[in-house]
User: Which sequence fits this backbone?
């Protein structure tokens, strides 16, 4: 009996230690990035609404990166009637790197999307051009209908600063647009606010507790 209790204690201690040392995101196996809604077809027109050549380039790079996956096609237009308006805004606070607001049709597909990246937050937290492009890739992922992936190795991980479009994300778009059943029932809009990631946290390793 004593032996059993001792073993049980050891086991509990082991599980506890493992849980303590492993951050939650590392426990989640990267799986196919889920979707929340879709356009009728895997394509959308997009207007980059920015006066800054640098930020136009950030959006354009992210658009090309998604188009290169050949799962979804963003088509650039100058029309304000575009399906997606991609811009810059700091009005939702310095704690957010990006924001996407999607509206749905009465049939439950995506009708219109406003996607923003936040120049002020980028400046405060010293985002590199590549990191800005990654935030733009993430917001475009929302724009085409992807939700967050709980695993860190996805461009759709919520607090993402340094992970580009992954296979799990490409598969997610493929699954989303292969199915005809993806219609939003109920809500008529969806907002995603994506937090900034402080540079020192990017490669942070968990502290060893004794
Ligand atoms: Zn997000």
Assistant:
């Amino acid at each position: 009996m004593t032996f059993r209790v001792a073993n049980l204690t050891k086991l509990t201690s082991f599980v506890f230690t493992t849980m303590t040392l492993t951050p939650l995101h590392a426990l989640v196996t990267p799986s196919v990035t889920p979707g929340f809604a879709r356009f009728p077809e895997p394509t959308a027109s997009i207007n980059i609404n920015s006066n800054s050549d640098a930020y136009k380039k950030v959006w354009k790079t992210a658009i090309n990166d998604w188009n290169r996956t050949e799962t979804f096609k963003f088509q650039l237009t100058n029309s304000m009637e575009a399906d997606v308006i991609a811009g810059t805004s700091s009005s939702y606070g310095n704690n957010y790197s990006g924001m996407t607001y999607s509206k749905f049709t009465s049939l439950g597909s995506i009708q219109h999307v406003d996607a923003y990246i936040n120049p002020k937050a980028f400046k405060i937290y010293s985002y590199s051009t590549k990191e800005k492009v990654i935030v733009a890739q993430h917001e475009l992922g929302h724009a085409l209908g992807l939700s967050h992936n709980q695993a860190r190795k996805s461009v759709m991980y919520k607090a993402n600063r340094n992970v580009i479009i992954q296979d799990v994300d490409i598969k997610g778009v493929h699954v989303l647009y292969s199915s005809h059943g993806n219609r939003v029932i109920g809500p008529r809009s969806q907002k995603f606010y994506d937090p900034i990631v402080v540079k020192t946290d990017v490669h942070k390793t968990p502290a060893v507790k004794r």
Notes: The longest strand covers residues 96-104. Strands lie at 43-49, 73-76, 84-88, 96-104, 110-117, 189-195.
